[in-house]
Amino acid sequence: LSEKLSAAFKRLRSKGKLNESDVKEAMREVRLALLEADVNYKVAKDFVAKVSERAVGNEVMESLTPAQMVIKIVNEELTALMGGGETRLNSPSSPPAVVLFCGLQGSGKTTHAAKLALMLKNQGHRPLLVACDVYRPAAIQQLQVLGSQAGVPVFEQGAGDPVKISREAVKHAKDYGNDFVLIDTAGRLQIDEALMDELRRIKEAVPPTDILLVVDAMTGQEAVNVAKSFHELLDITGVVLTKLDGDARGGAALSVRAVTGRPIKFAGIGEKLSDLEVFHPDRMASRILGMGDVLTLIEDAQKNLDQKAAQKAAEKMMQNRMDLNDLLDQIRQMKKMGPIQDVLNKMPGMGQQLKDVQIDDRQIDRTEAILLSMTPQEREKPELMNPSRKRRIAAGSGMKVEDVNRLLKQFEQTRKLMKQFKKKGMRRRFAGMGL
Ligand code: GDP
Ligand code: MG
């Protein structure tokens, strides 16, 4: 048995480098996650190809399987890909900074112009909102309502020429000491020439320090085309990704980033004016990969396998200084990782060998209950145990005195076993030295 065990441990220890089949296997999962998250097909394909190249040959971490290792690399690459670039607004050579919002109808331009106004105001700035969606009277009114909620002035000239309105708004800002001008523009359901032309003329007339493309995270596959068209025409400086409070997996973020190369500067996470965040690429990566499944496993392994504690326990065990406190620690560490059977099955090379072994987690719970009913002193010195203590522990844990006895006996046997192991080991070592 111990030979088998040591072989299994050897395999655990020497997982070595990722090979092509490890990577291929994990990539199937990743590609699926990306497509499910609405990442554009071509973007997903390019990304997977690039990551595969980097992953092959990478060292596999102690606590992970090769598949998990690939996903860890994918997560890092996704984070890096979406995180590059300046997320702050550009600053002008002389005030005011002018931020032009553009995007399709309903993407959240008006709402996010107001959200950003509030954020800036809270940072001590003096923003000015500008109503350049002149085609629907309701649009101007919407901005006025939001502006008053935010406590930020709104510049409007009714249904005038948006180019002229923007120019005059900037002049107004200079006269009144507004250091930010936030221009809300019209959107269409689809990209259309007239709209693009209008945006281009506003850009020439002002010109803006930032052009933010507002993209609804639910847009899905279409996000690529939208981003491409707007970027080609306007050379955007950044993206605002909205409606992340919904159930969109956020693949649009990756697509938009990939086709424009521009950073996502802000994320909208709700309808309220305060629901605006600076973009967090790591959170987005987790979201795209599917928080619930792949990633948590990796995080669990890293969090729970406290390497130092494990080493200390091993040392204590070798020196036969292990007590019941250590046993309790170990039970807790194991329980953090979920049902024992699952954990063992996830270990490479272990699944097959253990597939018929039934492990009863309830037994472990019972052991833990007994241990918890002992005082730390009793756990440290099991030899303190006497009938009255045993009765107290049994009552406290809802077990019988026999159960307490059995646990103590098993533990004592384990200690003896360890002692023998240690002696044998020593003898063998001496034998090796010719003694
Ligand atoms: P516009 O046509 O681009 O100006 O879009 P609006 O700013 O008018 O927003 C369209 C709708 O989306 C409105 O009902 C907003 O309340 C809603 N909305 C905007 N941003 C968010 C967000 O981050 N989360 C949620 N849940 N709703 C949003
Ligand atoms: Mg609007």
Number of strands: 8
By DSSP (H or I, 4+ residues per run), the number of helices equals 20
Helix content: 55-70%
Give the distance, in angstroms, between the N- and C-terminal Cα atoms: 27 Å
- Please state roughly what percent of the residues sit in beta strands, choosing from under 5%, 5-15%, 15-25%, 25-35%, 35-45% or over 45%: 5-15%
Strands ordered across the widest β-sheet: 3-2-4-1-5-6-7-8
Shape, please?
elongated
Multimer state: single chain
Spell out the helices and strands N to C: HHHHEHEHEHEHEHEHEEHHHHHHHHHH
Give the C-alpha Rg: 31 Å
Ligand inventory: guanosine-5'-diphosphate, magnesium ion
CATH topology heading of the largest domain: Rossmann fold
Largest sheet: 8 strands, mixed
Quick one: CATH class of the largest domain? Alpha Beta
- Which stretches of 5+ consecutive residues score pLDDT under 50? 347-353, 425-435
What is the fourth-level CATH superfamily of the largest domain? P-loop containing nucleotide triphosphate hydrolases
- Tally of distinct domains: 3
Structure classification: alpha/beta
What CATH architecture of the largest domain do you see? 3-Layer(aba) Sandwich
pLDDT averaged residue by residue: 81
Structure description:
- Residues 263-276 form the SRP54-type proteins GTP-binding domain.
- The protein is an alpha/beta fold.
- The chain has three domains: 13-85 and 292-300, Four Helix Bundle (Hemerythrin (Met), subunit A) (Up-down Bundle); 97-278, 3-Layer(aba) Sandwich (Rossmann fold); 307-432, Signal recognition particle, SRP54 subunit, M-domain (434 Repressor (Amino-terminal Domain), Orthogonal Bundle), CATH 1.10.260.30.
- Helices cover 60% and strands 9% of the residues.
- The protein has 20 helices and eight strands.
- It binds guanosine-5'-diphosphate and magnesium ion (MG).
- Residues 103, 105-111, 187, 214, 242-243, 245-246, 268-271, 275 line the site of guanosine-5'-diphosphate (GDP).
- Magnesium ion binds next to helix 5.
